[in-house]
C-alpha cells in the first residue's frame, strides 16, 4: 500500500526554521516526482498551493516565488524520504503542508497531477 507520512511541523516564531520530512512507502522510489503543497487556514476548499517540487533524480527543482531563497527541497532516494528545509519563516507561511507524489520525471505545479498525498502537517508561525 502506497503511503506518505509527513512530520516536523509545529509552532515557531517569525524568523525561525523548521524541517519537514516525508516518508514514502513505495516499492520503487525512483521514478516519482515529489512536491510540497500547502493550504492556508483562510483558504479552505481552494486548490492547494504549490510550494516546491523535485524530480526523481534530484534535478528539476522548482519553488513558488514567495519561498525562493528561504526554502530548500531535497530527497534521499535510498531512504525514500523528501525534506523541506524552511528558513526565515513568516506568518504568511502558516498552513497545513502536504507531501505529494506522482509517477513521472517532470515536476508539476498543479495539485491535480499528483495522485498520492500525505495527511498533512501543521506549520504555524507567530509574528
Reconstruct the topology from this structure:
Elements: E1 3-7, E2 10-13, E3 18-25, E4 32-39, E5 49-54, E6 62-63, E7 71-76, E8 81-86, E9 95-103, E10 116-117, E11 121-126
Parallel strand pairs: 2-11
Antiparallel strand pairs: 1-3, 3-8, 4-5, 4-9, 5-6, 7-8, 9-10, 9-11
Task: Describe what you observe in this structure.
The protein has 127 residues and is an all-beta fold. Helices cover 0% and strands 49% of the residues. The protein contains no helices and eleven strands. The chain has strands spanning 3-7, 10-13, 18-25, 32-39, 49-54, 62-63, 71-76, 81-86, 95-103, 116-117, 121-126. The strands form two sheets. Strands 2, 4, 5, 6, 9, 10 and 11 form a seven-stranded mixed β-sheet that branches. Strands 1-3-8-7 form a four-stranded antiparallel β-sheet, with no helix packed on it. The chain is globular. The mean pLDDT is 93.
